[in-house]
Write a structure and sequence with these properties.
With 738 residues, this protein is an alpha/beta fold. The chain folds into 6 domains: 2-69, PriA, 3(prime) DNA-binding domain (GIY-YIG endonuclease); 109-177, no CATH class; 197-369, Rossmann fold (3-Layer(aba) Sandwich), CATH 3.40.50; 380-424 and 485-621, Rossmann fold (3-Layer(aba) Sandwich), CATH 3.40.50; 426-483, no CATH class; 629-732, EIF_2_alpha (Alpha-Beta Plaits, 2-Layer Sandwich). It contains 21 helices and 30 strands. The chain binds adenosine-5'-diphosphate and zinc ion.
C-alpha cells in the first residue's frame, strides 16, 4: 500500500504530497514518522492508494504514531481551506490538532491508582487482623468506596499501603486522569425555563435545519435557544459546537452548559493549559464529549456527525484569524454545516452588515427576537456631550451625569461597568518643550505608559522600556500624557469613590492562567462594585446586579480610517449597553462623546438596527466597499526597507497588468470597466513592527461571480513575488489594515 503524506514542516518547498510505502497498511489521517532528507520527521497520511506514479524507489513509512487522528471531513476541510485562503496544507492540518501534541510534548496523564482486589477475602482478612494493625483496616474501609491515587494514600498511610499490596489485598493500576478546565462562575443552567413564544418559534425552525441569522436584542434569551437546539441534536445522537467571541466568555457558558449537559461538554480555547486542551480534545475525538464550547479555534473540534453549529455574536471580528494561517471561522462553520447536513446559526443583537446583506439575498433565514425576556425594557442610553462638560468647567474624565449615576448605583448596592477601549495609563508620553514622543525601538509606534508596572509598553510587540522622567532629547522635565487608558480610569474612580471596590479587566490583568475567570468570578460574586475594562467586558456577560454602564470616549472607534468604523461603533455601543439591567433591576447607560449628534450614537440610543443597516448599506454601495466589493490586501514585510519596497513594486506592477486583462469592452479597469475598482500600493499605516518593514497593496474587487477567479489570480502574482528574506501575505477582507 502507498501512503500520501504531508510532511510536518512549514515551508513552501515541502508543501507537496510525498508517497511512501506502508507494507502493513495504514488508515487515512494517521500520524506517521517517515524518512525525509535523511532525517526522521513526522507527517500525516492524507490519502492511500495501491501504487505510486513516482519513478524512483519509494521509501517505507518508519512508524505509524497515531491511527486515524484526522477524519475524512477534516481532510476535505483542508482542501477547502488551502484553496480558499491560499494556505500550506501543513499549516491547516496543525490547526486541527492540539498544540504541542505534534512534537509529542503533551500526552495523556496517567496516575498510579490503588483499589481493593475483588478476589481477596477481605472479610476473613479483617477478622484476622491484629489490633496493632488497625491502620490496615482503616485503609481497606476507605478503599471500599472506590480507589484512590497511590500518592494520596502513601502520604496518609505510608508503609501500610505497601504491606497490603504485598499481601495481595490491593491492586495497583495505571489509569488515565483527565485534566479538567474549571468552571468557576456564572448562572445556573440546570433548570430548564419555559420558552417564550419567540424562543419557541426559533427553536422549532432551527431543529428543522438550514442556515439562520438569529437577530435578538441583548437579553432576549438567545442562549436558551442555543441550549435547546443543542439538546435536540444530542438527543438524536448528533453533536454540536458553539463559538463565542472571547475567551473571557467561555467560562460563563461552560458553567451553564455543564449543568445542562454534564460531561457531554468540552471546552476549547487557547487559555487552557496544553494538558487540559489535549484531554478535552481527546474526549471529543473518542466521542465522550459531544457538545463543544470555545473561541475561534473550537470550530476545528474533531466532532463527528455535527447536528448544529452556533456562532454567537457573529458580528465579532475575532472569528477571523489575523495571523498565519489566516482563516475565518464563519467560512469553516459553513463548510462543516454543509458537509454534515447540520443547522448553522449565526446569532447577534447587531448582525454584521455583510451577514445581514447575505440574509436579504436569501442565504440565511431570519429569526427575530425583538424583545427582552419578560418584556424588560432595554436600558435607557443617555448621550453626554463632553464638549459641553468642558465649557461648563468640568475637565475631568467623567461627566457629572456619570458621576451621579455611579454614586447612585453604589448607594443602592448595585454594580457598575465602565468601558474604555484603551489599556494602560496613557496612550503616549510627549515632551512639551520639543515634541519628542517615546517610541518602540522595534516598531513604528508610540509607547503606552503603564503606571502600575512603571513602564512604557509597546502594544504591537510587547517590549517594555523604562519610564522617562525627563525628555531624552532636550532634557525637558515637562511631560504631556496622551489619551486616558483603563489604569487611569481606575485611579480616578478610586479617588472619587474611595470606598468602592474596583476591578480592572484588560489584556494586562488577564495574562495569567484563568485570569479572565478570576476577575469575572469576583465581580459575579459581588466582591467588587465597579468593573473597568476594555472590549473584553463589552460582550455577552450576564450579571444580574449591573444597573449602570458608563461608556468613555465612545468616539474612539469612530474615526479609524476603516470603512467599518461606523459599524463597529454601533455594535460596540449596543453590546456594552446591553450589559445593564438584564434581570429584575432596570438599567441605564451613560455614553460620553465629543460628537453627540453623530448618527451612529443617535441610532444606538434608539436601538434602531434597521435604520442603521439601511444607512450603512447605501453608503457601502455608493463608495464601493464590501459587501459590494471584496478587499484584498497583499502585505509585504522584510528586514530591509529597500527590499520590501522593491518587492511590493514588482507585485503591484504584476497586479496592474492582470487588472488590465480583466477589463471589458466598456473601458479601462480603472474606469469601472474591469473586475477591479481600486488598486494602490503604500507603506502600511504602522510601517515597522518587530524590526520588519511593512508595505501593502490594497485592492477592491467587484463581488460578483468572477471574484474567486480574480482573487486566485492575485494569489498567484503575490506568491511569485516571494523571495529570500521577504514575507508576502495575501488577505481577503482583513479585519485590521495596520
Ligand atoms: P442574550 O444572549 O440574548 O443576550 P440571555 O440568553 O443571556 O440573552 O438571556 C437573558 C436572561 O434571560 C438570562 O438571565 C436568562 O437566564 C433569562 N432567560 C432566558 N430565557 C428565559 C425564559 N424563557 N424565561 C425566563 N428567563 C429567561
Ligand atoms: Zn514594539
Amino acid at each position: 500500500m502507498v501512503a500520501q503524506v504531508i510532511i510536518d514542516i512549514s515551508n513552501d518547498g515541502v508543501d507537496r504530497v510525498f508517497d511512501y510505502n506502508v507494507p502493513d497498511g495504514v488508515v487515512l489521517g494517521s500520524r506517521v514518522a517517515v524518512p525525509f532528507l535523511n532525517r526522521r520527521v513526522q507527517g500525516y497520511v492524507i490519502g492511500v492508494k495501491e501504487s505510486s506514479d513516482y519513478a524512483g524507489a519509494l521509501k517505507d513509512v518508519s512508524e505509524v504514531l497515531d491511527e486515524g487522528l484526522i477524519g475524512g471531513e477534516m481532510l476535505a476541510l483542508m482542501d477547502f481551506m488551502t484553496a480558499k485562503y491560499n494556505l500550506r496544507r501543513i499549516d491547516v492540518l496543525r490547526l486541527f490538532l492540539p498544540p504541542n501534541m505534534r512534537e509529542g510534548g503533551v500526552r495523556e496523564l496517567k496516575r498510579r491508582f490503588v483499589s481493593l482486589n475483588p478476589d481477596f477475602g477481605i472479610a476473613e482478612f479483617a477478622a484476622s487482623v491484629k489490633k496493632s494493625a488497625q491502620k490496615q483496616l482503616e485503609l481497606i474501609k476507605i478503599l471500599q468506596d472506590g480507589g484512590d491515587y497511590l500518592t494520596n494514600l502513601n502520604a496518609l498511610y505510608g508503609g501500610t499501603v505497601n504491606t497490603l499490596i504485598k499481601k495481595g489485598a490491593l491492586i495497583v493500576s495505571d489509569r488515565r486522569v483527565r485534566r479538567t478546565p474549571n468552571s468557576a462562575y456564572g448562572k445556573t443552567g440546570g433548570r430548564a425555563v419555559e420558552l417564550t413564544a419567540d424562543q419557541k418559534k426559533c427553536v422549532d425552525e432551527i431543529v428543522k435545519s438550514g442556515r439562520f441569522l438569529l437577530h435578538g436584542v441583548t437579553g432576549s434569551g438567545k442562549t436558551e435557544v442555543y441550549m435547546r437546539v443543542i439538546e435536540h441534536a444530542v438527543k438524536n445522537g448528533r453533536t454540536a459546537v458553539m463559538l463565542v467571541p472571547e475567551i473571557s466568555l467561555t467560562a460563563q457558558f461552560y458553567k451553564l452548559f455543564k449543568e445542562r449537559f454534564f460531561d457531554d461538554v468540552a471546552i476549547i480555547h487557547s487559555g487552557l493549559s496544553a494538558g487540559e486542551r489535549f484531554d478535552e480534545w481527546s474526549r471529543i475525538l473518542n466521542g465522550e464529549a459531544r457538545v463543544v464550547i470555545g473561541a475561534r479555534s473550537a470550530i476545528f473540534a474533531p466532532l463527528k456527525d455535527l447536528g448544529v453549529i452556533i456562532i454567537d455574536e457573529e458580528h465579532d471580528g475575532s472569528y477571523a484569524s489575523e495571523s498565519n494561517p489566516r482563516y475565518n471561522a464563519k467560512d469553516v462553520a459553513a463548510f462543516r454545516a454543509e458537509y454534515n447536513g447540520a443547522a448553522l446559526v449565526l446569532g447577534s443583537a447587531t448582525p454584521s452588515v455583510d451577514t445581514y446583506f447575505s440574509m436579504k439575498n436569501g442565504e440565511y433565514k431570519l429569526l427575530s427576537m425583538p424583545n427582552r425576556v419578560n418584556d424588560k425594557r432595554l436600558p435607557k442610553i443617555e448621550i453626554v456631550d463632553m464638549c459641553r462638560e468642558l465649557r461648563e468647567g468640568n475637565a475631568g474624565l467623567f461627566s457629572r451625569r456619570l458621576e451621579d449615576a455611579v454614586a447612585r448605583a453604589l448607594k443602592e448596592g448595585n454594580q457598575a461597568m465602565i468601558y474604555l477601549n484603551r489599556r494602560g495609563y496613557s496612550s503616549f508620553v510627549m515632551c512639551r518643550a520639543c515634541g519628542y514622543v517615546a517610541k518602540c525601538s522595534d516598531c513604528d509606534i508610540s509607547l503606552t505608559y503603564h503606571i502600575d508596572d512603571g513602564v512604557l509598553k509597546c502594544h504591537y510587540c510587547g517590549k517594555k522600556f523604562h519610564m522617562i522622567s525627563e525628555c531624552p532629547e532636550c532634557g525637558g522635565k515637562n511631560l504631556r500624557f496622551g489619551k486616558t487608558g483603563t489604569e487611569k480610569v481606575v485611579k480616578e474612580m478610586g479617588a472619587l469613590f474611595p470606598k468602592a471596590r474596583i476591578l480592572r479587566m484588560d489584556n494586562d490583568t488577564t495574562r495569567e492562567k484563568d485570569g479572565h475567570e478570576k476577575i469575572l468570578g469576583a465581580f459575579y460574586k459581588k466582591e467588587a462594585d465597579i468593573l473597568v475594562g476594555t472590549q473584553m467586558i463589552a460582550k455577552g456577560h450576564d450579571f444580574s446586579d449591573v444597573t449602570l454602564v458608563g461608556i468613555l470616549d465612545a468616539d474612539m472607534s469612530l474615526y479609524f480610517s476603516d470603512y467599518r468604523s461606523s459599524e463597529r461603533t454601533f455594535q460596540l455601543m449596543t453590546q456594552v449597553a446591553g450589559r445593564a439591567g438584564r434581570e429584575k433591576k432596570s438599567g441605564e447607560v451613560v455614553l460620553q462623546t465629543y460628537a453627540p449628534r453623530h448618527y451612529v450614537f443617535r441610532l444606538a440610543e434608539r436601538y434602531d438596527y434597521g435604520a442603521f443597516y439601511e444607512k450603512e448599506i447605501n453608503s457601502r454601495e455608493v463608495t464601493k466597499y464590501p459587501p459590494f466589493t471584496v478587499i484584498v490586501r497583499v502585505l509585504v514585510t522584510a528586514d530591509e526597507d529597500a527590499a520590501a519596497m522593491k518587492a511590493v513594486r514588482k507585485i503591484y506592477n504584476g497586479i496592474k497588468e492582470f487588472a488590465e486583462k480583466t477589463r471589458t469592452e466598456t473601458g479601462r479597469w480603472d474606469n469601472g470597466g474591469g473586475a477591479f475598482v481600486y488598486i494602490g500600493a503604500m507603506r502600511s499605516p504602522v510601517s515597522k513592527i518587530q524590526n520588519k518593514y511593512r508595505y501593502q497593496i490594497l485592492m477592491r474587487v467587484k463581488n460578483d461571480g468572477n471574484a474567486e477567479r480574480i482573487i486566485n489570480g492575485v494569489y498567484g502574482i503575490a506568491d511569485a513575488g516571494q523571495g529570500k528574506g521577504l514575507t508576502v501575505f495575501t488577505e481577503i477582507n482583513p479585519q485590521s489594515l495596520v
